[in-house]
């Protein structure tokens, strides 16, 4: 499942390749990924010029015309691929945008995903994105801002990281090494953190996500051009039974709510 680093890179690439293009036609294979029917979707977008593309958490926002925005979420996984003029669209896709210059953008979902068209004056009421929290790649995500986010919270650290209403973009994949880097147990409570631990967690979030984005994200995810990411392995994530990279203690897999977590029981003690 793509998380912040992969979505951030896709949005940057889409902004570079698509801005200024005009939509000539849209091939819709799976209507259920839309928030309106196929006819209305095409009517609203055909002939519109593409503006800026940005990401927030696991969502991509693309300006389409003066009054509407395209919202894209890949759900549990998928591919967003850019096609040059004359190139064939390889593999299956659920949606394909064709532009007047002969280029195209195909979108495929492995399981489920969303492509919504929303009027700009209604974005704040769009149920799936209106409550998104801050993205750790935003300049506003400072240490002081992070400390304020934690005020009054009594949930576990794992719950905090996965709560898209608080911090948008982190999923179960990146949460593993973020907590390990901070040397914090996933079931520690937020209100129990010392100032030093809070700063370590903040730094671990920023450093891990920026590092992953700079290296193209995970190897099993693809960018806009079909290239795989450069992150091939984790520090402790999904390495049950293997030695901790710091102290060599065997990595354990534990149950944390509805998710599994991978920890070093020595480096991440539950105090």
Layout: helices, strands, pairs:
Elements: H1 4-18, E1 23-28, H2 38-45, E2 50-56, E3 59-64, E4 68-73, E5 78-83, E6 95-99, E7 104-109, E8 114-119, H3 143-150, H4 157-162, H5 172-181, H6 195-214, E9 252-256, E10 259-263
Antiparallel strand pairs: 1-6, 2-3, 3-4, 4-8, 5-7, 6-7, 9-10
Helix pairs in contact: 1-6, 5-6
Task: Sum up the structure in keywords.
N-terminal domain of MutM-like DNA repair proteins; Helicase, Ruva Protein, domain 3; 4-stranded antiparallel sheet; alpha+beta; single chain; 6 helices; 271 residues
Notes on the structure:
The chain is α+β, with helices and mostly antiparallel strands and 271 residues long. The chain folds into two domains: 122 residues, N-terminal domain of MutM-like DNA repair proteins (Alpha-Beta Barrel), CATH 3.20.190.10; 121 residues, Helicase, Ruva Protein, domain 3 (Orthogonal Bundle). Helix content is 25%, strand content 21%. The protein has six helices and ten strands, in the order H-E-H-E-E-E-E-E-E-E-H-H-H-H-E-E. The strands form three sheets. A four-stranded antiparallel β-sheet has the order 1-6-7-5, with helices on one face. A hairpin with a 2-residue loop joins strand 9 and strand 10. The longest helix has 20 residues. It starts with a helix and ends in an 8-residue tail after the last strand. 37% of the residues are buried. The mean pLDDT is 96.
């Amino acid at each position: 499942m793509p998380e912040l680093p992969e979505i951030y890179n896709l949005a940057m690439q889409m902004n570079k390749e698509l801005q200024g293009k005009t939509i000539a036609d849209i091939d819709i294979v799976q209507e259920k990924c839309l928030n309106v029917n196929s006819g209305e979707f095409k009517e609203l977008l055909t002939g519109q010029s593409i503006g800026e593309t940005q990401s927030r958490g696991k969502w991509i926002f693309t300006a389409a015309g003066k009054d509407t925005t395209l919202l894209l979420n890949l759900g549990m996984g998928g591919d967003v691929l850019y096609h040059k003029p004359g190139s064939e669209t390889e593999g299956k896709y659920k949606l394909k945008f064709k532009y007047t210059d002969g280029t195209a953008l195909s979108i495929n979902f492995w399981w489920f995903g969303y492509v919504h068209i929303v009027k700009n004056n209604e974005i704040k009421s769009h149920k799936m994105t209106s409550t998104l929290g801050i993205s750790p790649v935003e300049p506003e995500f400072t240490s002081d801002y992070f400390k304020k986010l934690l005020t009054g919270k009594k949930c576990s650290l794992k719950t905090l990281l996965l709560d898209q209403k608080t911090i948008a973009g982190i999923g179960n994949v990146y949460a593993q090494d973020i907590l390990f880097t901070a040397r914090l147990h996933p079931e520690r409570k937020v209100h129990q953190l010392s100032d030093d631990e809070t700063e370590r967690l903040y730094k671990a979030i920023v450093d891990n996500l920026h590092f992953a984005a700079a290296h193209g994200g995970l190897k099993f995810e693809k960018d806009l051009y079909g290239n795989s990411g450069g992150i091939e392995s984790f520090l402790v994530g999904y390495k049950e039974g293997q030695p901790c990279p710091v102290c060599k203690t065997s990595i354990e897999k534990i149950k944390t709510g509805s998710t599994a977590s991978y920890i070093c029981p020595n480096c991440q003690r539950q105090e």
